[in-house]
């Protein structure tokens, strides 16, 4: 029986547990994990059991509420200090996705407006509200996106910015789901997304499950797809957007954007405002998470597939220049990179 019932993360308020789907097991195994253990929560984010910027943001909020509900501290100052410690440690897990920091800060603001009596209750209520908000924000992005895609038959997407990367619906895939709800079936080409294969394992499985016509391609095939007119738009998600519109997203996204520009195909970034970072002026200031090289040479192979002396470099994200982005599809509407500042 499923507790999450179509969602990606949740909170079991009866037993005080944070709940998530272990995405490293997908698509072969569906497993919901229930935890109130800090190390297990930390590892879940670090090892991408829970991943996708909005999902790790909401999961951070849920986890902080669950961890604080267990606390034996009674005095307000003690409770706040404990919350700050957990929040500070979780923020370090994944440095590029700003939603982690955003969610932790939202929880700290909530705590600062509470007192020792309602401290725990107000954090749980805030986490529940963030779950609800994420669902409605993503649906809104889908509504605006579906309107833009009215004349499209097929789109290309990179990584997974679908329901598994949020609580429900997703960002980049939400327009496809909403269009489907409206009777418009859009085909999706999904980049497999080396090295962790989020496109092949996650995007393809959630789209197929939803009955969307899905074709997986290797990352180096996008140019072929575009040149042959097989897609009319590109939709991607984002992990941190700077004031000038420069956008960090899964490694490979900037290459797709450069190709889209070359072939004159509109390139849309689907962005909940929780992924916008007004403290960062341009993409040059975005910290890029570097991950273990084993993800390239060993993770998906029975035997290591690289020669022993070969080095690896594994940046998890890259930055797409704002000049390559046609528009951001947000919960506040469709906006061009130079319009972002008006919406802050
Ligand atoms: O490393 P991941 O799998 O967390 O990377 C995910 C992405 O890059 C997504 O495109 C991004 O977080 C947006 S998800 C709506």
The number of helical segments is 10
Strand tally: 13
Structural class label:
alpha/beta
Main-sheet strand order equals: 6-5-4-7-10-12-13
Hetero groups bound? 5-S-methyl-1-O-phosphono-5-thio-D-ribulose
N/C terminus separation? 42 Å
**Approximate strand percentage:** 5-15%
Q: Tell the overall outline.
A: globular
Compute the average pLDDT.
Answer: 97
Q: Helix amount, in percent?
A: 25-40%
Sequence stretches where pLDDT stays below 50 over 5 or more residues: none
Question: What order do the helices and strands follow?
Answer: EEEHHHHHEHEHEHEEEHEHEEE
Largest sheet: 7 strands, mixed
What value does the Rg take, in angstroms? Answer: 20 Å
Q: How would you explain this protein's 3D organization?
A:
The longest helix is centred in the middle third of the chain and has 30 residues. Strands 6-5-4-7-10-12-13 form a 7-stranded mixed sheet. A 3-stranded antiparallel sheet has the order 1-2-3. It has a 3-stranded antiparallel sheet with strand order 8-9-11, with helices on one face. α6 links the parallel β4 and β5. Helices cover 37% and strands 15% of the residues. With 344 residues, it is an alpha/beta fold. The mean pLDDT is 97.
């Amino acid at each position: 029986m499923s507790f999450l019932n179509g969602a990606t993360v949740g909170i079991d308020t009866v037993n005080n547990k944070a709940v998530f789907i272990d995405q490293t097991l997908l698509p072969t195994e569906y497993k919901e994990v229930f935890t109130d253990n800090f190390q297990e929560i930390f590892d879940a984010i670090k090892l991408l059991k829970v991943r996708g910027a909005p999902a790790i943001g909401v999961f951070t909020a849920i986890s902080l509420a669950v961890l604080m509900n267990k606390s034996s501290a009674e005095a307000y100052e003690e409770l706040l200090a404990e919350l700050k410690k957990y929040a500070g440690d979780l923020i370090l897990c994944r440095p590029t996705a700003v939603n982690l920091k955003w969610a932790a800060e939202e929880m700290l603001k909530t705590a600062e407006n509470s007192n020792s009596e309602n401290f725990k209750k107000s954090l749980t209520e805030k986490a529940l509200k963030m779950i609800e908000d994420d669902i409605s924000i993503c649906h809104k992005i889908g509504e605006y996106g579906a309107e833009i895609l009215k004349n499209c038959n097929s789109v290309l997407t990179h990584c997974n910015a679908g329901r598994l990367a949020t609580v429900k619906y997703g960002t980049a895939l939400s327009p496809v789901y909403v269009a489907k709800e409206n009777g418009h079936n859009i085909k999706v080409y999904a980049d497999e997304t080396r090295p962790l294969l989020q496109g092949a394992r996650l995007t393809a499985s959630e789209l197929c499950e939803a009955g969307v016509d899905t074709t997986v391609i290797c990352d180096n095939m996008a140019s072929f797809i575009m040149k042959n007119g097989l897609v009319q738009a590109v939709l991607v998600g984002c992990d941190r957007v700077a004031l000038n519109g420069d956008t960090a997203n899964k490694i490979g996204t900037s290459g797709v954007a450069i190709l889209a520009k070359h072939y004159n195909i509109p390139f849309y970034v689907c962005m909940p405002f929780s992924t916008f970072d007004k403290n960062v002026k341009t993409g040059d200031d975005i910290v890029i998470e570097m991950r273990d090289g084993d993800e390239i040479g060993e993770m998906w192979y029975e035997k290591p597939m690289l020669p022993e002396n070969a080095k690896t470099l594994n940046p998890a994200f890259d930055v797409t220049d704002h000049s390559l982005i046609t528009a951001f599809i947000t919960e506040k509407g469709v906006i061009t990179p130079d319009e972002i500042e008006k919406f802050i």
